[in-house]
Amino acid sequence: MPDNDLQRSSGQRPANVIEGAAVSVSLLCLMHCLALPILLLLLPGALGLFARSDAFHYAALALVVPAALGAFWLGYRKHRMRRPAILGLAGAACLAIALLPGVGEGGELWFTIAGSLLLIAGHAMNWRLRSHAA
């Protein structure tokens, strides 16, 4: 009879895992459904304030610069071309200039757009060169 118990428990294990996963997913769904209306009411105002604040721009710059430096460094190590990194550094510099006091809203907008476009061009070039490098 112990062999029969072993077979039953080993056969139940996959079912228990599947059942546990189903219950977990159902609970996540319930939490999502209950929390979503509250989040939709609260987030637009909070995100809108944050997105228009200087803190957002500093946080974005703090994320963009290290990621870009890493990507351009890895690309340079593979293809040995400086042009993508130069474009990227110029883009990051434009983003930083946009945060300087006295630039004004119009200048901030144009420096941010130029910086973003330069970063995009640098990353596209970097990606293309990396894919063609051996």
Give your account of this protein's structure.
There is one protein chain. By secondary structure, this protein is mainly α. The protein folds into two domains: 49 residues; 80 residues. The protein contains four helices and no strands. The model has no long low-confidence stretch (mean pLDDT 77).
What structural class results from the helix and strand content? mainly alpha
Quaternary assembly:
single chain
**Helix-strand topology string:** HHHH
The overall strand count is: 0
Radius of gyration, in angstroms, nearest whole number: 26 Å
Number of helices: 4
Describe the sheet with the most strands: none
Task: Give the termini separation.
Answer: 64 Å
Low-confidence stretches: none
Helix content: over 70%
Percentage of residues in strands: under 5%
Number of domains: 2
Mean pLDDT, to the nearest integer, reads: 77
Shape: flat
Show the helix and strand layout.
Blueprint: H1 2-52, H2 54-79, H3 83-98, H4 104-132
Helix pairs in contact: 2-3, 2-4, 3-4
